[in-house]
Write a structure and sequence with these properties.
The protein is mainly alpha-helical. The protein is built from three helices and two strands.
Amino acid sequence: MAKHYMSCADERLRFETKTHEKGEVLMSALNRFPKALNISVGILKGKHWFVPNVRTARDSELDEKVISAVSDLLLKGLE
């Protein structure tokens, strides 16, 4: 499923995928939802990827452009 969505995305977007080890699965929502697809939006600087403002006072700020881009991609992938 992740590869399908990646093929539908704008070529300017970069995707990283991760396969979780069994121990990681047991300690996450994947334990209950094994076919789950987690989507995170962040910033890549060099080899390091991070999500800004996590666990800060600005943690709840929403970027409508990002939300729109992600929802558009998900809808496109369903076509």
